[in-house]
Design goal:
Helix content: 25-40%
Amino acid sequence: MAEGRALYVGLKLLDRQLVDRDDKACGKVDDLELEFSADSGNLYVSAILAGPGILAYRMRRRRWGRWWQRVNEVMSPTDGDPARIPMSLVAGIDDHVTLGTQGGHLGSMSLDHWVREHVTSHIPGSGHEAE
């Protein structure tokens, strides 16, 4: 495993905007998945967790959070946990977190896509591009 850099994750990662490789906003960092390194025993961030269920769970609304996570899993076209964004997809950490992929491919955005397709797009006037 490659050496990483040391960060104060509470300041540098939590609640930061997620931006995809096309500079489009695609969520916020709601929580982090931490693991211990088998080699050194150091704690490291293995994944970013994003989505409405994760945030609700973090805000001590565990039942509501689990329900939202389940809805997100059902809506997600991806296998596995849709709220989990592996650190291997992170391209940069600054005042926002830049991902090396398109936000549309993230499982955490599946509920947003469903709402846009089945609800928002049926509202008159919502079909035009922003200027």
